[in-house]
Design goal:
Elements (H helix, E strand, L loop, with lengths): L1 E17 L5 E21 L4 E4 L11 H12 L5 E7 L10 H16 L6 H9 L5 H6 L3 E4 L4 E4 L6 E6 L6 H6 L22 H7 L1 E2 L2 H7 L1 H11 L4 E3 L6 E5 L2 H8 L7 E8 L3 H12 L1
Parallel strand pairs: 1-8, 3-4
Antiparallel strand pairs: 1-2, 2-4, 2-5, 2-11, 5-6, 7-10, 7-11, 9-10
Length: 290
């Protein structure tokens, strides 16, 4: 069984304040993409979990795929074992959800393969134990998030293609949120006027931006350089705490023409924004064919 683990972009990220427990109150718009990692699942006759992570240099106990599998084993009455192969395309520390999406796909895929029967609500609760961004991938829909990222409201966004640049450095989310220079007093956005869960292009353009961007660019000049290069062609910004930066285009062709001129020191890819996760679409297809 082969399942995608899609990337995400933060089309807006506002930090409203810091809570007494050290976490931050924020508002963000998670945009899912049709590009990401892939996970291949093979059942094992024993209860062991093995993960082939390719070139990903990470101890097994720290691998979110492995941790997700063990978490689901403990939650389920009669799970089996699994061998999982990760085909990695998303960079670590890029702010596009690579590890979180891998963990979510592991939960969704094993829940299906082991016939655990857990609801999306329960899987999202388990995912929250692995990371703040995991639930949005579990639920599988582009979403508006509040609180510390756990309060999710599904929304739809207009068709857009995104050019995403990978500057070649890894950013520590904990270091960014722990930095005293981070802006923490943004005004909250209200979605009370939202009808039918749709956010149009005018809304996206009005509320785009990232409160982490100024600090991250100060700490990582290469990220600033990548964003300023992309800014020549379209409004560009940081996603999450970085390191990736992105810009929206009306077509894949328009984004691809810019990508063709990308300086050699950076990497990049073009992806379409999607409202429904490719993981959920593939699982629905498998269920229909079973």
């Amino acid at each position: 069984m082969l399942l995608p683990a899609p990337a995400k972009l933060n089309l807006t990220l506002r930090i409203l304040g810091r809570r007494d427990d050290g976490y931050h109150e924020l508002q963000t718009l998670f945009q899912l993409l049709d590009f990401g990692d892939e996970l291949e699942f093979e059942p094992r006759s024993d209860r062991e979990i093995s993960v082939d992570a390719g070139t990903l240099d990470l101890p097994l106990q720290d691998n979110l795929i492995y941790r997700a599998a063990r978490l689901l084993q403990r939650e389920s009455d009669n799970p089996g074992g699994a061998h999982i192969v990760l085909r990695k395309r998303l960079p670590q520390g890029g702010g596009i959800g690579g590890g979180s999406s891998d963990a979510a796909t592991a939960l969704l895929g094993l829940n299906y393969m082991w016939r655990c029967g857990l609801s999306l609500d329960r899987l999202a609760q388990l995912g929250r134990e692995l990371g703040a961004d995991v639930p949005v991938f579990v639920r599988g829909h582009t979403a508006w998030a509040e609180g510390i990222g756990e309060k999710l409201q599904p929304v739809s966004t207009p068709p857009r293609h995104y050019l995403v640049l990978v500057p070649g450095c890894s950013v520590s989310t904990a270091a960014v949120f722990g930095d005293p220079r981070l802006t923490r007093d943004s005004t909250a956005i209200t979605l009370a006027h939202l009808r039918g869960g749709h956010l149009g292009s005018e809304w996206l353009d009005r509320y785009s931006g990232n409160d982490c961007q100024a600090l991250v660019e100060r700490l990582y000049p290469e990220i600033r350089a990548a964003r300023e290069w992309l800014q020549q062609f379209a409004q560009a910004q940081l996603t999450g705490t970085g390191a990736c930066v992105f810009a929206a285009f009306e077509s894949a062709r328009a984004a691809g023409e810019i990508l063709a001129h990308l300086p050699q020191r950076w990497r990049g890819f073009v992806a379409a924004g999607v409202n429904e996760s490719p993981t959920h679409r593939q699982l629905a297809k498998l269920a229909a064919e079973a």
